[in-house]
Write a structure and sequence with these properties.
about 230 residues, eight-stranded parallel beta sheet, single chain, TIM Barrel, alpha/beta
Amino acid sequence: MNRQDKIAPSILSADFARLGDEVARVERAGADMIHFDVMDGHFVPNISIGVPVLESLRKVTKLPLDAHLMIENPERYVEVFVKAGANSVSVHAEVCNDIPAMAKRLHDLGARASIGINPETDVQRVLPFAEHLDMILIMSVHPGFGGQEFIPEAFEKLRAVRRELDRRGLKVDIEIDGGVKLANIADVKAAGANVFVSGSGIFGYPDYTKIVDEMRELIAHTPVRD
């Protein structure tokens, strides 16, 4: 199944002192969406940003906002994030007891539904429910901190998810998050991803347009391989 390739800068690596300007710069650079990491200090050992920041960014960008909720009890918070302006919401399989019900709730709220899995979580935790979803998020680092190195075992997870989605004819996006950069984005595309979250791989460079263009060129010329 053909899926549109999308580059999603993760603002966890942006300069928070001028966050609105940073988002404007990656929008001008050609980003397809903004990845918004939410951490609660419980599900992951860090605390990041929340609803007021997302609501503020909604006013300054037309790009879709992709809220990645690395939090416990996500069912308590999905509605407020959607109402604040999130276009898609990812909650983690590790803390979601009823994936179809969560997907329905997000769809009823008008958002795209995504389920994420951590590096230690088997893809079978989410694949049986894939027909309910718009996106599956594969973590290629242990969530909680930016700037980590890509975990190579994520490649086989990507291939397994892509094979199963294609077998069932499901046009579900496959998002990869963690350690994605210019040096490995082609390999990630070849393994089956089509939504590429990159934090320091974009914000760590002075020229966002140049790095986004180079990433897009690489993924455009890389076929998905079995």
